User: What shape does this take?
Amino acid sequence: MNGAEALIGALSRANVDTCFANPGTSEMQLVAAIDKAPDMRAILCLFEGVVTGAADGYGRMADKPALTLLHLGPGFGNGTANLHNARRAGSPVVNMIGDHATYHLKYDAPLTADIEGFAKPVSDWVGTSASAADLAATGLAALRASLVYPGQVASFIAPADHAWDEANGADEALPTASPPKALDDDLQAAVSALRQNGPVALYLGGRALREDALFQAGRIAAATGARLICETFAARLQRGAGRVPVERLPYFGEQAADYLKDFAAIVCVGAKPPVSFFAYPGKPSWLSPETAELVSLAERHVDALDALTRLAEEVAAPAEPHTLQPAGAPPPEEGPLNPLDLGKVLAAHMPENGIVSDEAATAGLFIFPVTAGAPRHDWLMLTGGAIGQGLPAAVGAAVACPDRKVIALQADGSGMYTVQALWTMARENLDVTTIILNNGSYAILNIELQRVGVENPGTKALSLLDLTNPAINWVSISEGMGVPACRVTTVSEFRLALEDALNHRGPRLIEAMI
Amino acid sequence: MNGAEALIGALSRANVDTCFANPGTSEMQLVAAIDKAPDMRAILCLFEGVVTGAADGYGRMADKPALTLLHLGPGFGNGTANLHNARRAGSPVVNMIGDHATYHLKYDAPLTADIEGFAKPVSDWVGTSASAADLAATGLAALRASLVYPGQVASFIAPADHAWDEANGADEALPTASPPKALDDDLQAAVSALRQNGPVALYLGGRALREDALFQAGRIAAATGARLICETFAARLQRGAGRVPVERLPYFGEQAADYLKDFAAIVCVGAKPPVSFFAYPGKPSWLSPETAELVSLAERHVDALDALTRLAEEVAAPAEPHTLQPAGAPPPEEGPLNPLDLGKVLAAHMPENGIVSDEAATAGLFIFPVTAGAPRHDWLMLTGGAIGQGLPAAVGAAVACPDRKVIALQADGSGMYTVQALWTMARENLDVTTIILNNGSYAILNIELQRVGVENPGTKALSLLDLTNPAINWVSISEGMGVPACRVTTVSEFRLALEDALNHRGPRLIEAMI
Assistant: This one.
């Protein structure tokens, strides 16, 4: 047995069963070892940003890590943007990064790079194996690190000679990841805050947005009148008809500050107090009112379900929430397509237990509210702001949940960053319906240009925010990568295309001209 | 005047006139400043790997840096792979990286990241502005660093508040970058090595591969009988009919070692002694024979033209080389297309003073030799092994040299990494003929799998090296991004398509099925 086989065998026995891969020469022994591991699925992605974004989507839905397989420092570099998102999401991810044989490093061959340096800015844990015998243990240490609640990005470096040299297959037992519990003092502070005169918010993020935790939050709301508000960009929000609904904090800072201005207290669970996504001249970064009492009941790494359950008991909450999301979709207005009516049609057709990967940017702000009453579903968002996450995350979610329909709501500008994800959808016949929201623009930047104080931008500035000249034909690109596609321009065309896509298993793309 | 305007004005006056850009919210003031600088061209790329690869290609051809405009740590991360290549090429590149306003960093908003950490593994120089007043000076310091011979990757961080706060427009004079000269001792060691009994090689890289330096190498060869051998992957090789020809070191280590085994001495100019690209079990990393005398006349940062000129004088070389590359292209064999005959047709049709961006991988090994007698041209190669460089480099070369035809020889697998480059070719109407060498495979990895000792790979391993299922349709993808395209399967079809593409100005894509 060589080191690669010991490693892959150990990870496979530890219940890692999926590897998103883009290997090179230095990873060929790892490829061969994956080949020999019957329970390890290998999924080729044609760009590393797809690999890591898929691992993020997989981790959010599976609550366990996929393995990535990446080629030295630059290959890892291509994956860093989506690892930034994964880290912000608290997704479990294990990156397996090949390197030159250790004795080869001193020659500074062309691909030699400081891989640990590449890995550190986007990893919670970084390790390098010390020998062939150590390779499996290093991989298992990375796996343990990735499982620290709610999930972490762990990266380990596998030198080629450690992969091909002889090794034994010694496994280590994996301790169950058990998150710390909220402190009693923080619990009492939360109880006290909930008794404030004036409106109180429970500000929820991370694992507090799962159905079970939201149920407890709903009980607390029933007992105290607290409002439930979620992060603007949540890793995974379980919502839809019959679940406890939450309000979503607005994106733009001044709107968010206005939204929060009357709260006497804000109790955070699974989230830090909200801040502005970007800074703007003369506008505040901190969004909570100065007069509000801020309580951190449970930071992200603290057990959110336990904290909310105990808080519900402390406030003598009723057994059930009073408010559950009613079913229903608002009727669209027929005519030319726009994000609002697109969202209404989507709400009316969403399958039970679907998954939405939302990188719809400006268009998404219209679609999210009107889909609240759709059948229960999971909504995945862009947690780290590094665009190019939506299509890869859809790949990963579809792999993690093969029996659930995935709907990728994808803005055109950000979709181009990792467009190669479409090919993997086709190869793996993933059940993903991609809806490209084509407005021919980095629309958000046209808004932001004004918001940062740029007056009368000229044609050169505006050209940097414009995606026409040439217009991108997503149908053509999609079909070039093997995903059947169509273009729609009206509400009725969209409805027909959506029904068709949802009624068939496998990848489809709808280019929605909005 | 704000900091952004002071910065862009100073860089513009220092002769930086091109910015490859993919900005976000935190860079809007920089966009506005570029808008106001009449001599600064702004070129939008739809992915950061295209931005940085274009800057690499531009730097190689212009011998001065383009500016890149990138969005915080993750945006920079997407550009790291091609910056690794640029650094290995010795290309001058100045990266301008936006960041949050300094006072916003403490809130750890979603896009907050360790940008210096991202930058260090791929930069020769990293700086962060200290204030709005310091921003222009920081940019100029990066510019100076980028111009250190033969060129460096310099990255500077521009916090948003430094861009929008008031500043004065103080410029600093730029000292001319003057590279160090070869030491007299090294010169005498080279003279002594050239007098060895037995064959001697001049091993050439970096700036030693420009026409003027090769002319001097040719004089030395005429005087001493030394053979001229170039790096396997050179940043920019000036070759073609009438120029001094060089042999190219084979890629695979054992072939390279065999190639070098009889040399009594190897004199390196602009290059380090050759090493194997990857390590393989039981095969040597070091390629020079143990018995050979190794002399480093000029490392990469030492003036190569000066070193070769002085060496030619020391060996009393004749005024002219004896050997110049004769013109001519070997005749192709009609029939189904293959890389060798594709290369022969290309050689017969190459325009005078063309530029070839070669990321053709396995196919390129056939095309390079048969194009030796084509009209004089520049040949750009993948210096750092981080694939996805060819199409972006073609973008940059075409921007740097608008009067020269650029031919991108692009393997299908690596082309997918930065396929978004096609859109920029269309938007800027760049005179690039892209030839996709479509073999439906990461062909090199099928070879490497065996070379690292993997026997009898199974279907799962082979699936990770295979690009069929689904087959990629490059014509469809190219047209989707606005570049006219056609597919060819025979030598005669290729000839017609190539003639048509070369006879028209503007981007074209030929999908060559090989």
